[in-house]
Amino acid sequence: MDSIDEGIIRCVTVNARSTYAEIGEAVGLSPSAAKRRLDRLVADGVIAGFTALVNTEALGWTAEAYVEVYCTGNPTPAVLRRDLERIPEVIEACTVSGPADALLYMRAADIPHLERAIQRLRESRVIDRTESVIVLSRLINRPRST
Length: 146
What we know:
The chain contains five helices and four strands. By secondary structure, it is an alpha+beta fold. Strands 2-3-1-4 form a four-stranded antiparallel beta sheet, covered by helices on one side. Strand 2 (90-95) and strand 3 form a beta hairpin.
């Protein structure tokens, strides 16, 4: 991987729908050369896929919560992920150390919407219980690095 590959990755990270011409212009390549390099990055597994990021605020989902998940038994992360992926209000999920098995970041339109989403979580056969903390205000919200 060289600086051109890094530039291509930066370009598609900012906008996954960048054209080959836009990518090439950003890194100093022709569109066809940019396509070949991007295809190689995908084939090598450096770029695992392309996705759409949904702006939950544009959906009117302004209620936020962090939810600790406590599981029944010892489900694998893959099993837990499968159940969590079915709930669009789950924006982020990770397994964690400590008493909880996972920590979720959730967004919803309002508290009743959030409550319904948490209830759907609790319907999972691998989730025993949850503990929620509602976000009152954001003090710092820095963008994440790629």
